Q: What sequence folds into this?
């Protein structure tokens, strides 16, 4: 079961070394960690496929779908899979086509080399050992809060090889030439690979979908759409062009600030969009100023992505409050969210233009549902007075909102499955029999499924905003 989950990129095995006590031999055990984010990413496969289909041709999409289905495959397996669906006379061209399509997918960073199957995790530091001794034996792995990150870093291929695709006959020479450019942190990985080559061990490269690339594109899209709604299409084109020009230079997903990109590179990207073609260089500079981009001495620009995403999160929760509680509750919540500190009840009523009798009722309702935090303060003087103060605790609320979204997504998924189960007999009917009343029922079922799946997709966008981005 663990091996199958590993092939589907749902778990990561690793070898843990226990140094033991004085005189004891070093113990090695194989352990597994579940990659919960990768489990959730499986529901996003249709979105991944859409991105690939918009950028590359059909052959690349089919190959990519095979990788999503099987988790990880070698080039040989990809070729065999492609040949199985073709006529014998077509097989002669398939191998070259698969190589070319895989090369395009790797070049676009849609596909990457798989991590090590079972990396060796270095022994913990003295501080980590002390923490483990204080923890119970059953919570040994959980005692290290960064264990997942440490394992993933140990398993990851060298960055210089992650998107390396070439013919087998060129691999050895290129790897030797590559050794001189490897940084200190990756020398150990390279030496292990070199020792295998010296022993005549041929490395069989496994490929898999690169989830990070798709999530980065979705993150950029969320920022661009937020700017489009708050400002206009021109500002959105300017931001989109900046992010597209610098996307390949980003080293990690959750970057607070975009990489610096020259004005010429941004303008070149802007010219590719229909709206951008009418934009002059001065127009672009004005939009970058409007976006409050940081400008470098060489007229390179970067932008604070963290602030844009925080605005998007605020707006998402505010929209939930508006739909769930109404306009007065929305104004009160928005006020507290912007203030960021404790505010007294009467001041909330005056500032948000809400009736003084209604404001306390609304606040207590929001407090009961954990949308706001309440604190009572007693002031001693000639006579004792009590004030009730309110604020939005975003750290707690955002986590609660995220959990609610997961529950809603589960309910929608179950509803889709229920509708499909109820209508499976209708869907199994031949096309020629789907007429009259039966045809109307089939069309109704399709409409219901479409609406539910669109709702689920939008909900997933909101989940990514809070959990992934």
A:
């Amino acid at each position: 079961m663990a091996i199958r989950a590993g092939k589907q990129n749902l778990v990561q095995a690793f070898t843990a070394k226990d140094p033991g006590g004085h005189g004891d031999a070093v113990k090695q055990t194989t352990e597994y960690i579940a990659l919960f984010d990768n489990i959730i990413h499986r529901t996003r496969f249709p979105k991944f496929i859409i991105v690939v289909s918009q950028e590359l041709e059909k052959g690349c999409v089919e190959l990519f779908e095979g990788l999503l289905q099987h988790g990880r495959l070698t080039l040989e397996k990809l070729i065999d899979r492609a040949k199985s669906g073709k006529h014998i006379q077509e097989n002669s061209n398939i191998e070259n086509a698969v190589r070319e399509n895989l090369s395009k997918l790797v070049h676009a960073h849609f596909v990457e080399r798989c991590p090590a199957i079972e990396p060796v995790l270095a022994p913990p530091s003295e501080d980590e050992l002390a923490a483990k001794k204080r923890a119970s034996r059953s919570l040994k792995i959980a005692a290290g809060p960064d264990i997942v990150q440490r394992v993933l870093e140990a398993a990851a291929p060298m960055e210089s090889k992650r998107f390396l695709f070439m013919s087998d006959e060129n691999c050895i020479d290129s790897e030797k030439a590559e050794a001189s450019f490897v940084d200190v942190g990756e020398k150990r990985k390279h030496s292990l690979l070199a020792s295998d080559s010296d022993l005549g061990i041929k490395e069989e490269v496994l490929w898999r979908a690169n989830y990070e690339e798709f999530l980065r594109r979705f993150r950029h899209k969320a920022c661009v759409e937020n700017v489009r709604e708050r400002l206009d299409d021109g500002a959105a084109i300017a931001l989109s062009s900046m992010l597209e020009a610098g996307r390949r230079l980003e080293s990690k997903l959750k970057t607070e600030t975009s990489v610096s990109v020259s004005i010429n590179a941004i303008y070149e990207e802007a010219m590719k969009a229909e709206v951008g073609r009418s934009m002059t260089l001065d127009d672009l500079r004005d939009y970058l100023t409007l976006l409050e981009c940081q400008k470098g001495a060489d007229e390179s620009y970067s932008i604070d992505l963290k602030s844009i995403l925080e605005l998007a999160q605020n707006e998402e929760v505010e929209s939930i409050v508006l739909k769930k509680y109404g306009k007065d509750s929305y104004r009160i919540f928005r006020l507290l969210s912007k203030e960021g500190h404790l505010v007294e009840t009467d001041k909330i009523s005056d500032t948000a233009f809400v009736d003084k009798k209604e404001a306390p009722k609304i606040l207590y309702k929001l407090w009961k549902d954990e949308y706001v935090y309440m604190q009572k303060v007693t002031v001693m003087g000639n006579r004792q007075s009590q004030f009730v103060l309110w604020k939005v605790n975003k750290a707690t609320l955002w986590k609660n909102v995220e959990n609610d979204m997961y529950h809603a997504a589960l309910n929608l998924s179950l509803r889709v499955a229920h509708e499909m189960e109820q209508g499976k007999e209708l869907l199994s009917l031949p096309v020629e029999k789907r007429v009259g009343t039966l045809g109307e029922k089939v069309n109704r079922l399709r409409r219901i499924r479409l609406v539910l799946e669109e709702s689920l997709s939008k909900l997933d966008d909101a989940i990514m905003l809070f959990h992934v981005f």
In short: The radius of gyration is 28 Å. Residues 398-467 form one domain. The chain has four domains: 2-209, 213-303, 320-392, 398-467.
